[in-house]
Amino acid sequence: MKSTGDHQDWLATSGVLAGHTSAASSGDGSEVSGGTVFLARVSDFLELAKFRLSILVLVVTAAGYCYAAGNASRLMTLVHVVFGTALVAFAANAANQIIEREFDATMMRTARRPIPSGRISIIEATLFSVMCGLTGFAYLLIFVNALAASLALATLVIYLTAYTPLKRVTSLNTLVGAIPGAIPPMIGVVAATGRLTADAWLLFGILFIWQLPHFFSIAWLYREDYERGGYRMLSVVDPTGLAVSIQSIGFMLGLIAVSLIPAFIGNAGLAYLFAAATLGYGLLICVIRFAAARSSDRAYGALRVDRIPSTFDGPASC
Question: Per-residue pLDDT tens for 268-284?
């Protein structure tokens, strides 16, 4: 989700633009090879797809599958569900940037994204999004099952038609945005079992709650940028940070409780119990430290600790 600043700065100085297909002139007049332009284009589309963020989506999808399948896991089914989910995630991320391109251009954090910077055209982005979305849905439908495909489609629809427009209407958008963010592990469970089991809902609950303190940290760090873009984040509505602090602590307490359930019902062992409790309490301490002195440094500290479980728990904010 982060913009690749070094790559973008290089593009700005070399003069490599989205429409180039063979060679371009760099800032010092030298020629940039067609291969370099091609790699730059690939990098732009990976950024449009939010590839690094999507990796987290794929990790939790795979985790959901392995959690539900256990010893009955099949490698090809895992590959199919991860690949199909990846394409739908790429589609959602690209479509989101198409919708928000004008607002992205006003924010320092997003102004260098491929569309507002002019490296990828609206037509190119639209074709990319539609192709990824249709292919991903069809792939899951054919190679996994209809329920998995339906959940992936629901993720895309909620993300684009509910969360994206609500970001400019109400601070409750964060709660809505956490819904599509928590569905990927359910897709993995459904790929393994063919139905929505209690385990699927449990993983949904853990990931849903985990995202909220994470979102709040990001929103606090970039509150001025969000306000500039017209987004109604909680940190913009309440710039004192009191509401962010209270809700972050509350959701962290809920996360600790919910994340321990797999161990208590016998679905996870002592190693999981220790890891979940340690990470949960560590993050809670960071959140409390932020509440005591609401600074960007402490918000960033909470975000860094929060990203330890993010490698297997779920996606970040848009």
Answer: 888 888 888 888 888 88
